[in-house]
Each structure stands twice: as structure tokens, then as C-alpha cells.
Amino acid sequence: MLMRGGTSKGLYFAASDLPADKMMRDLVLLSAMGSPDVRQIDGLGGAHPLTSKAALLSPPTHPAADIDYLFLQVSVDTAEVRDDQNCGNILAGVGPWAVENGFIQAQPDITPVRIHMVNTGTLAVAYVPTPGGTVEYDGLTRIDGVPGTAAAIPIDFLDIAGSSCGALLPTGNVTDEIGGVEVTCVDNGMPVVLIRATDLGKTGHESPAELEADDVLKHRIELIRLAAGPLMNLGDVTKKTVPKMTLLAPAKNGGFISTRSFIPHRVHEAIGVLGAVSVATGCVMPASIASGLTSTKQIEESSTLDIEHPTGAFSVSMKVNGEGKMLKVERAALLRTARKLMKGEVYIKGAIRSADMVENWEHV
Known about the structure:
Elements: E1 2-5, E2 8-14, H1 22-33, E3 53-58, E4 67-74, E5 81-82, H2 88-91, H3 94-100, E6 110-117, E7 122-129, E8 153-158, E9 176-178, E10 181-187, E11 191-196, H4 208-212, H5 215-231, E12 244-249, E13 257-262, H6 273-283, E14 302-309, E15 312-321, E16 328-336, E17 338-342, H7 355-359
Parallel strand pairs: 2-3, 4-6, 11-12, 13-14
Antiparallel strand pairs: 1-2, 1-17, 3-4, 4-5, 6-7, 7-8, 8-16, 9-10, 10-11, 12-13, 14-15, 15-16
């Protein structure tokens, strides 16, 4: 099934329909997307990391879940498939897929689907609209970064702090200095490094195209990212897509803070779901690098924070207690939409079934 999930788009597979061998599975996904090729002209990918994603769905291995969800990022211009992060946007389509494919019985109005996010071993609950026992995709909810409206899918994230790095503050500090720049490293579902845009000579309100055209900026951000990886318990991140690098600036349109996110080498047209949760978490820490940049809105035990991005804003509802190193996130929730685009068969190049092709894939 080809689906839009949040502000991303990807292929949703029953895991049992793909090869059990990981190398062969990845070859199938690369062929399906048309990678490696910057245009992905020979596949279903959209020539951008946000539209070259895959969800593999299978019966739950977690006792509290209804379905297992493994997210895979299929590289656009290299022969690489990675599983070292979750994707909260593609997650938005998992609940509808689970209902449509019989993993859970639809309820008359709203069907909660408990999803085991295999990449990090954490749980999320998606509330799928199912009036009359059928998944409803049409609705009046608008999310920035997606044209038109669709049915709302609220998602609760359960105990995701430190899911990739082992701690909400992976370095043990609210702030660190990396490469001569003060940063805050946070993992509340997605490892992120927060940086004041002005510390890198930017306003933080530039367009993604302007930031991507600045090779000096990108090189400096990559050096910080590579140094942050080991400090965040992620090891060598040279070939990883985490941590995400996020520039912060004061909000311009009434939100809580403004962001520009590197994912990690392209600039996000919006912001990732779990990236927004981690950014919001970092911003409610009084001594973080966000201090002095956020709006004057009073942060209470339960707050909804609008995280601005290049194409709008992302609302994150949070319930927290404590401060600094003692901060505990009780709940993080947000609103997404999804749409089923097509269901059918994708044709794979016969050549990848060749043992010689598999053996020599690294040289292709």
C-alpha cells in the first residue's frame, strides 16, 4: 500500500510479503523505490528522503501491542536502507493499515491501535477514525505541510524518553559545547542536537533552499553531528541519519519557537514528528540553549506547544514534571493525518534475484 503518513509518504508492506533475508529485502526495497538515483525515476520514490520510506508491519511481539512496525529509510542516491530511527509521520498510516488488514477489529467510532515501534522498542497508541467500522480518511483536520484536509489521527507516545540513546539527556548535561558551539542534546523519541541559529551566523528563518545552498554551514553542522554521535551513545554516526540537527530561533508567527531541521544532510520542509517532540522537550528545560528564544507563554505541567517550521507549525501536547536533569516527560501527544493513495503490486527488477547481484551489490 502506498500511503501518505503525516508529511511523509512511503510504501507499507506486510513483512511476510518481503524476503526474510535482510540483504535481499533491502534490494527489493531499493528496486521498489528506484534507488540509487537522485530522481528515483525507475521506482516509486519521490526523489526526497521524506518520500522514500517504508513501513514493515507484522503480528505483535510486544505483549501490549496490536501490531509491530519497523520503519526503514530508503536512501535516494545511495544503495542503503537504514533502520536506526523511528518515523512518527509514517507511523500515522500504521493504525489505518492495521485495521484495513485485519490486525485489529474496527470499533464503531474510534479504534485505538497500540503500535510497537520495533526500531526503538517503544509503544504508541494511534486513535483511528472508524465510523461504522470502516477507516475514514476524509475529514476537516489540516496539518501544515500537507495540502487540504483529512481525518484526524491523534497519537500518544508512551515512555519514549531515551529510546535511542538510553537517556532523555544522553550526555548527562542540559548543555554541552561541541565544536565551539553550545548545544543541547535530547532524545525524547528522536535524538536531536539543538543549536542557536545565531551561533552559526544564521537567523533561523532562512528557507530550506537557502540553508542547503550554504556549503560552509552544512560542513560545520556535520562536524558537530559527528562529534555529538559518540557523546549521545550513538557511536560513529558517519553513515547514520541520527542525530537530527535543529537550528532554533524566536518564533515569527505566534508559536513557541522556530526551527530548521537537518535530516541530517537535507533540510526538512517541515519537521519530523518525533523530532518535534524532542525539540519541545529541550525547550521546556530552563537551562537549555533554547532559553531566551522561546515565547513568553507560561509552561505548565500540561502544555501544548506550537513548534514552527518552514511550512507552518507542529503542535505538541506535553505533560512534564521536574526541571533540568530531573525533568520527566509523563506524556507526549500530537495530531497527524494519513491518506491511502493506492493498493496493489510493485514490480521488482528480476536481476536482483541473482546470487551474483547480491554478492556484488557493494560494488554496484
